[in-house]
Amino acid sequence: MRCLVVFLVSISWAGLVAADTPTQKLAAVDDIGATFKQTLSDISGQVLEVSYGRLLLKKPWFRWEVTEPFPQTIVAVDGVVKIFDPDLEQLSIHSLGLEEYDLPLIVLTRPFDEVQDKFSVQHRRDGEFDVVELTPETPEALFAQLSFVFQGEFLHAFTIVGHGGQTTDVELITYQTGLMLQSEQFELEVPAGTDIVEG
Per residue in 45-65, pLDDT tens? Predict the structure, then answer.
């Protein structure tokens, strides 16, 4: 999904954490693996694209792989983001700084107390779900709102809302916690001859 790069590059994850408030749950999510379904919809709710994949998260490392319909892999390691598009035979590399809080990726890979003041944070209860809504403090941010939905102690879903009303909804299909993930699981190997773009 090409819109993935624009928004985080869209992402999601789940975890079982011992925390009292939704914000604490969000801050504590770590060391997990999940498969996901991602749905892109326009402002009217018309579905534009559905994709499937898997992810790994062990802060500050992150791996996001779309497996269908258009393969794409994103890894973030030590503040460097790599995006590999096999269809384009291209690898893009850039640094992720704290000033780039318009990228949801930093909410996953940075301690939440480092980025919390960049957003207006709201909590609400929606039936059996706890919802954490992050609204950027600056209108220049690339998204209008980022929401995380918890069911009990588990992160259940995640939604990005763009300024034009376009939404990216991520539903977790299966997930595992406490995986003791290792650094080599976040390495990215690309075929010889891949075009590399840095910046």
Answer: 999 999 999 999 988 899 999
d(CA 73, CA 92): 11
Greatest alpha-carbon span in the chain: 52
Q: Which residues pair with 146 in a beta bridge?
A: 134, 160
- Find the angle CA(119)-CA(5)-CA(142) to the nearest 5 degrees: 35
pTM above 0.85, yes or no: no
Which of 54, 74, 67 lies closest to 12, judged by CA?
A: 54
Let me know: does 7 contact 170? Beta carbons within 8 Å: no
Cβ-contact 163, 41 below 8 angstroms: no
Strand pairing of 195-198 and 90-95? parallel
